[in-house]
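[Discussion] Sanity-checking designs against the backbone

I'm trying to build intuition for which residues belong where. Below is a C-alpha cell string of 475 positions. I'd appreciate it if someone posts a full sequence so I can compare it with mine line by line.
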C-alpha cells in the first residue's frame, strides 16, 4: 500500500528531528504545546519500536515509571504514562498493582501510543543527508519516503532553522564473532534479535550467552526457565570479573541527575574519558532482582539432588571463533585472570554485548567542515546539547544520546530524557517554557556549591582550597 506523498511547507521549519526513538519522541511531545514552534520528525522505520527483540515476558524497566517521556519536565502534559493508562481505563489496575517499575512491553506500548497520536511525526522517511545552505542561512535535510516494503517511493527536502539528531545506537558485535554473525544460516545473533529466534534457541542442543550485563542475564534466565531440568546445556560467559549487580543505591543514582551532568561536562576531556571508563557499574551491571531470580531457578533445579547442566563463568573473553562441520560453532576462550585458554563447542550463540552510539559522520558529512572536534576527533557538544559548529553557522544542531563523552553516564538514561528535551526547547525558544530545578541532587559533585533552590534552607558553603590564602598544597 503506497503512502500519500509528503509535501513540505514553503516556509522553513523551526526544528527538524532525525530519528524517532524515546528521546526525540520526548522532545516532540514537549514541543507539541509550544504553538510558536513548527517542528517535524523523521524516522526510517515504519513505526515506533523500542528494542522489540528484548521485550521478554516479565522484564521491567530499570527506571521508575516517572521516567516517561515528559513527567519529570511537565507532569501536567497530555503525554504522561498516567495519561496513557487513563485512555486505556487502566488507572485502577495500575494503582492496585503497586508497580514503580513497569514492564518493558508496557513502556513500548505507551511510547507507541504517543507516536500514533502526536502530530508532526513521519515514519517510513529515511534521512539521507544534512547540509548547511549559506545563501538561505538554513539547514537542508534530504529524505527518501519509503513504501511498505522499505523501497524508495519519493524524494523530499526540508529547510529548517535547527536540527536535532536522535538516531540512537546500533548493536555491537565483537570483531572475533562478526564473520559468523554476518554469515547466513549460522546461529550467531545479537541479543537485539533474541525474540525473533527464541524458539530455535530453545530447540538447540547447546546455547552460549556472551555478555554479563542486564540483557545477558535476562536471556540466560529465560532460556534456563524453558529448558528441561538436568538437560539445560547452557553456558553464560562475560568479560567482567563477576556477574555483579548494578549500582542502585539512592546516592549512587544521583549520578543520573542534571547536577552530575553539569559537573561532568565542566571537567577536562582527559578526566571525563577516565571517568566513563571506570563507571561501568553505574549502568552496565545486572539488576539484583534478576540475579536473585537466576539463583532461585538454579537452586530449584538442585532439589532432586542433581546440579543443572549450566555453566556460568565471568572473566572470560572470546579470542576467536569459527564453524565446525556445518552446524557447530567453536569459541576459543581466554580467562583474563588465569591466562588460561580453552575451546567451547556450541550449537548457538547469543551476543548480549551491548550497543554503540551510531556514528554521525555519514549523516553529517555535509556539515563536517563546520564541526568542531575534540582531541579524539569526536564532535564537541556544549552544555545545552548543541554541536559546536563554526560561527558562520547561524542555525543550531542538537544531539540526543550521542554525547556520552561530554555529558557522562546519564546520556542514554531514560530518566534524563524529559530534562534534556526541556533544556533543548528552553535553549531553542530563548525562554523557559519548561522551568527546570536549579538543584536535583543531595550530593555536591565538587567543591563549588550548586545554585540554591529558592526558599531552601542554606547549607554550609564549601570553600575551594585555592580561595584560602593561608592553605597551601604541599608535596
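Best answer:
Here's mine. Compare freely.
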Amino acid at each position: 500500500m503506497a503512502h500519500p506523498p509528503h509535501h513540505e511547507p514553503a516556509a522553513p521549519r523551526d526544528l527538524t528531528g532525525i530519528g524517532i526513538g524515546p528521546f526525540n519522541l520526548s522532545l516532540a511531545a514537549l514541543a507539541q504545546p509550544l504553538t510558536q514552534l513548527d517542528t517535524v520528525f523523521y524516522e526510517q522505520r515504519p513505526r515506533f519500536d523500542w528494542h522489540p527483540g528484548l521485550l521478554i515476558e516479565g522484564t521491567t524497566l530499570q527506571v521508575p515509571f516517572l521516567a516517561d517521556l515528559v513527567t519529570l519536565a511537565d507532569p501536567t502534559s497530555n503525554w504522561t504514562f498516567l495519561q496513557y493508562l487513563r485512555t486505556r481505563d487502566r488507572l485502577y489496575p495500575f494503582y492496585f498493582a503497586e508497580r514503580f517499575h513497569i514492564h518493558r512491553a508496557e513502556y513500548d506500548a505507551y511510547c507507541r501510543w504517543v507516536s500514533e497520536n502526536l502530530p508532526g511525526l513521519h515514519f517510513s522517511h529515511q534521512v539521507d543527508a544534512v547540509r548547511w545552505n549559506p545563501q538561505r542561512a538554513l539547514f537542508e535535510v534530504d529524505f527518501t519516503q519509503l513504501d511498505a516494503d522499505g523501497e524508495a517511493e519519493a524524494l523530499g527536502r526540508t529547510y529548517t532553522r535547527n536540527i536535532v539528531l536522535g538516531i540512537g545506537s546500533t548493536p555491537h558485535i565483537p570483531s572475533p564473532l562478526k564473520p559468523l554473525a554476518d554469515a547466513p544460516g549460522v546461529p550467531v545473533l545479537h541479543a537485539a534479535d533474541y525474540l525473533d529466534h527464541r524458539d530455535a534457541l530453545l530447540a538447540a542442543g547447546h546455547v552460549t550467552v556472551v555478555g554479563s550485563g542486564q540483557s545477558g542475564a535476562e536471556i540466560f534466565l529465560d532460556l534456563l526457565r524453558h529448558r528441561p531440568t538436568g538437560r539445560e546445556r547452557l553456558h553464560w560467559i562475560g568479560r567482567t570479573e563477576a556477574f555483579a549487580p548494578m549500582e542502585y543505591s539512592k546516592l549512587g543514582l544521583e549520578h543520573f541527575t542534571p547536577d552530575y551532568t553539569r559537573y561532568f561536562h565542566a571537567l577536562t576531556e582527559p578526566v571525563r574519558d577516565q571517568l566513563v571508563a571506570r563507571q561501568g557499574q553505574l549502568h552496565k551491571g545486572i539488576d539484583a532482582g534478576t540475579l536473585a531470580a537466576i539463583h532461585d531457578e538454579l537452586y530449584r533445579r538442585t532439589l532432586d539432588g542433581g546440579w543443572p547442566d549450566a555453566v556460568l563463568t565471568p572473566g572470560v573473553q572470546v579470542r576467536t571463533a569459527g564453524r565446525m562441520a556445518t552446524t557447530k560453532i567453536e569459541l576459543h576462550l581466554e580467562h583474563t585472570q588465569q591466562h588460561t585458554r580453552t575451546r567451547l563447542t556450541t550449537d548457538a550463540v547469543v551476543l548480549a554485548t551491548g550497543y554503540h552510539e551510531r556514528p554521525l559522520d555519514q549523516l553529517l558529512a555535509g556539515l563536517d567542515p563546520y564541526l568542531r572536534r575534540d582531541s579524539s576527533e569526536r564532535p564537541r557538544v556544549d552544555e545545552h546539547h548543541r554541536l559546536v559548529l563554526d560561527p558562520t553557522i547561524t542555525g543550531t544542531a542538537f544531539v540526543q544520546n550521542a554525547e556520552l563523552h561530554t555529558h557522562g553516564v546519564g546520556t542514554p538514561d531514560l530518566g534524563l530524557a524529559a530534562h534534556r528535551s526541556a533544556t533543548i526547547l528552553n535553549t531553542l525558544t530563548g525562554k523557559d517554557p519548561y522551568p527546570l530545578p536549579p538543584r536535583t541532587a543531595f550530593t555536591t559533585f565538587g567543591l563549588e556549591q550548586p545554585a540554591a533552590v529558592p526558599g531552601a534552607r542554606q547549607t554550609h558553603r564549601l570553600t575551594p582550597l585555592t580561595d584560602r590564602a593561608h592553605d597551601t598544597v604541599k608535596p
